[in-house]
């Protein structure tokens, strides 16, 4: 029996990353030192997802097959001394999900080659993995436009004594990002207690769910930034930035066993108050040109559009033979007007809000807020591998901000000179002024000196 000296698989053009619906081709190269009898030489291409209950284990408890194709490149015969090459080609299904490798499961694609030898002889096999990338276009994700916002109120307890409440509101500038973009986080904290809070923290979280009989949840902190404290009785606005590192996409379309979610967690170290802002991570960034336009509200009808009583005069002069107008019922007598003192205290409130409504709606912001900011902390073991994840050189950021370097940047106080990128105003409320509707002036009203006509008199009239 001859010995196989070289046995390897080579992809055409040394390509490693493919797309669903694309064909994968290459050659199998075999070099033998002596003549080798074989029953067949086969090449197999398959893709599957495997889930396990133990970390970094390959004994899959649940599997999901995507495709499995085998071709025979050589029939029964003898491989002569020297080098032999056998081409192959496979078509990747369009429904295959993106490659993924996690602690409790993987989505694997590979090409394997087998030399099937006669009985009592050693079989030879070799395999080579390749990676599949199904681009996630964020513009096609439902409900992707707008900001992700949330609010929470927490009781502040110190030494088993309730001292007040803390109100936390936060939002992100968008709901979808690509690796290399910057997440703009804005948080408003109102400390309605008598003790200062702990430091503010904003974290980019990844949650991977592996669907088994008892689903396994793998939660990781991808990146984290930290701010200062909020003093007692103060209200502050905190702005921060988180750079999105290379990450697997949010949706593994076509896979039913692995679910990936991302969210920004904004919290205080004390009291224990926290909220989450769900976001999506994709491969094609949002294009504001594709954002659906907000439908304009219909204009309020002007008084001229309402039919005044005098407008019905021409209709009254029409010939009596016209059958289109039905007789109108007699009007009921108008109620006797109340005295002036009662009318001024009636429940008819004016349409325009009081002036103090606008002044105290949002509350003041403490400009003298001493805030500290650290560099973005990224765990080196916090990423799952997925192909095609890299920082593009011409990636459009959401605004001017710090690069991906680890250098610290100044805090987001009023005097900072560029630590926080300007926020887009596309998703904010409309700044069109609301027309001021004044209440009626009852001071110059003239009241009738005699009672209105009775019901019978009105009918006769």
UniProtKB/TrEMBL annotation:
Cited InterPro entries: Arrestin-like_C, Arrestin-like_N, Arrestin_C-like, Arrestin_domain-protein, Ig_E-set
GO terms of molecular function: ubiquitin protein ligase binding; ubiquitin-like ligase-substrate adaptor activity
Composition bias, Polar residues: 372-382
Pro residues compositional bias, start-end: 326-338, 401-413
Positions of the Arrestin C-terminal-like domain: 162-286
SUPFAM superfamilies: E set domains
SMART domains tied to this protein: Arrestin_C
Superkingdom classification of source: Eukaryota
Assigned protein family: Belongs to the arrestin family.
The name this protein goes by in its record: Arrestin domain-containing protein 1-like
């Amino acid at each position: 029996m001859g010995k196989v000296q070289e046995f390897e698989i080579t992809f055409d053009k040394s390509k490693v990353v493919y797309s669903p619906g694309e064909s994968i081709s290459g050659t199998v190269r075999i070099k033998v030192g002596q003549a080798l009898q074989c029953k067949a030489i086969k090449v197999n291409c398959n893709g599957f997802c495997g889930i396990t209950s133990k970390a970094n284990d390959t004994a899959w408890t649940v599997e999901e097959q995507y495709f499995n194709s085998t071709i025979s490149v050589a029939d029964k015969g003898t491989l002569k001394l020297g080098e032999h090459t056998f081409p192959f080609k496979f078509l990747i299904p369009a429904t295959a999900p993106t490659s993924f490798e996690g602690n409790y499961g993987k989505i694997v694609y590979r090409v394997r080659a087998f030399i099937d030898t006669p009985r009592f002889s050693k079989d030879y096999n070799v395999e080579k993995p390749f990676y599949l990338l199904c681009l996630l276009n964020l513009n096609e994700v439902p409900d992707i436009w707008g900001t992700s916002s949330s609010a929470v109120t927490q009781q502040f307890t110190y030494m088993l004594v309730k001292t007040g409440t803390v109100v936390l509101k936060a939002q992100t500038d968008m709901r979808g990002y690509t690796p290399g973009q910057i997440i703009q986080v804005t948080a408003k904290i109102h400390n309605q207690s008598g003790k200062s809070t702990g430091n503010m923290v904003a974290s980019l979280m990844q949650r991977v769910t592996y669907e088994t009989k008892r689903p396994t949840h793998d939660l990781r902190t991808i990146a984290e930034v930290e701010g200062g404290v909020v003093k007692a009785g103060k209200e502050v606005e905190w702005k921060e930035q988180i750079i999105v590192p290379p990450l697997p996409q949010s949706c593994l379309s076509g896979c039913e066993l692995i679910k990936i979610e991302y969210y920004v967690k904004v919290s205080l170290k004390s009291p224990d108050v926290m909220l989450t802002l769900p976001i999506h991570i994709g491969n094609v960034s949002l294009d504001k040109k594709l954002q659906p336009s907000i439908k304009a509200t219909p204009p309020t009808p002007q008084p001229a559009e309402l039919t005044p009583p005098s407008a019905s005069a021409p209709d009254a002069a029409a010939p009596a033979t016209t059958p289109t107008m039905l007789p109108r019922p007699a009007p009921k007598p108008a109620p006797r007007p109340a005295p002036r003192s009662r009318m001024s205290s009636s429940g008819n409130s004016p349409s325009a809000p009081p002036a103090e409504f606008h002044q105290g709606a949002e509350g003041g912001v403490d400009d003298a807020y001493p805030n500290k900011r650290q560099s973005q902390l990224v765990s080196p073991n916090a990423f799952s591998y997925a192909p095609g994840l890299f920082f593009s050189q011409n990636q459009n950021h959401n605004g001017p901000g710090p690069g991906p370097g680890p250098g610290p940047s100044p805090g987001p106080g009023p005097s900072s000179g560029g630590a926080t990128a300007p926020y887009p105003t596309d998703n904010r409320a409309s700044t069109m002024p609301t027309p001021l509707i004044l209440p009626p002036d009852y001071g110059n009203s003239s009241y009738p000196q005699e009672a209105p006509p009775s019901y019978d008199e009105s009918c006769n009239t």
